[in-house]
Amino acid sequence: MNKSMKKILFIPHHPQVKNGLKIRIPELARPLAPGNTVFLLNWETVSGDYTLANRARSCFKDLMKTERQYADGNLTIVELPTLHRPLSLARCFNRRRVMRFIEDEKIDVVVNGSFELFTMPRERRFRYVYDLADYPPTGLSTLTLDELKNADVCTVISHELADYLQLEHGRKSVVIANGADIAAMRSVRPDEVTELKKRYHVENKWIIGYVGNIGNWVNFELAVEAFRRFQLKVPDSALIWIGPSPFLGELQKKYAGGSVIFTGQVTGSIEPYFKMLDTGLLCHKASPFQDRAFHLKLIEYTAAEKSVVSSPLKESMRLGFPNVLFVEETAEQWADALLKARNMAWKKEWNALADNYDWKVIGAQLQALI
């Protein structure tokens, strides 16, 4: 092996699921694969509803696994016997299994994003990078803080999170933001967009939309009320919610109709959905978690050349993107902002705003640390 090449093991924040959703650690890993040997650990996710029976089934299936490796594009996926619960026992069991793999493969670098299941020993011969992708709603656990101290390098998703770690815990960190497939966004064909508009019956309408998982952090009431006010002045308009939700039926019953549309889980490429919009929304309720999160939607909306109306979240405001309007959470102000966004002319120089957030650029930043 070339001396500049390294063997790198990535441990994600949660297992991959086959729904087309891209998650942080695998996307960070892929740009590093051409010049290194890159392994990605994976384990079982819960199939179906998150019931005790389904959780027990996935746990038993993982525990009974034999070690195997297989290719996924330019990555080598690794599956090991893995224990989920109880956590105190799971951490010891999983660390032994992972350390055996690390020693057998002579791994040079471990990038670990796990909050609970995987920890690394204090005495080790490999470089250890701990990646903190979010500030948990319940705060940082003692275990997470221990891993932050244990790591050779700590990477975090946002400047707000980096500031918090430095101020509250005296831990320096390096900001590695989330990325997007900028080339894929810019290569969406016009006929793909036309087909989507026909599917949802929004041809010749001004389309306002939200793309992503729709949870209780989304301020539905604010967005719908603001849209209703906007629609009084722009009748040929639609509000479309693109993505899955654990309470989709309830939302449809309460809000659907009158040009308010819910797509549910979509299949295939997500980029045409961004391109279908005229104005994107980031209507998240303010909280420490949301303030310290890196909201990739803002990058994707911008790569799709869209105006955006957003809640005034701290990390998002630090981006300083001129196409994003930050508005206090009142329906009247949001309706006014939607009108302003409709009249916003896209400037050619804004096309470069998203370039620094391409996954290849983000991957190069991580490569420099390891």
Which key terms come to mind for this protein?
Rossmann fold; 370 residues; globular; six-stranded parallel beta sheet; 15 helices; 2 domains; 18% strand; alpha/beta; 38% helix
Q: In percent terms, what proportion of residues is strand? A: 15-25%
Indicate the CATH class of the largest domain.
Answer: Alpha Beta
- Order of helices and strands, N to C? EHEHEEHEEHEHEHHEHEHEHEHHEHEHH
Unreliable stretches: none
Strand order of the largest sheet: 3-4-2-1-5-6-7-8
Distance between the termini: 17 Å
Rounded mean pLDDT is 92
Question: Any idea what the CATH architecture of the largest domain is?
Answer: 3-Layer(aba) Sandwich
Number of strands: 14
Task: Summarize the structure in words.
- The protein is of the alpha/beta class and 370 residues long.
- The protein has 2 domains: 7-179 and 359-369, 3-Layer(aba) Sandwich (Rossmann fold); 182-353, Glycogen Phosphorylase B (Rossmann fold).
- The chain has helices at 24-29, 52-63, 87-105, 142-150, 159-169, 182-186, 190-199, 220-233, 248-255, 271-276, 288-292, 296-303, 314-319, 331-342, 359-369, and strands at residues 7-11, 37-42, 68-72, 75-79, 109-112, 127-132, 153-156, 174-175, 206-211, 237-242, 260-264, 279-282, 307-310, 324-326.
- The strands form 2 sheets. It has an 8-stranded mixed sheet with strand order 3-4-2-1-5-6-7-8. The chain has a 6-stranded parallel sheet with strand order 11-10-9-12-13-14, sandwiched between helices.
- A hairpin with a 2-residue loop joins strand 3 (68-72) and strand 4.
- Helix 8 crosses helix 14 (331-342).
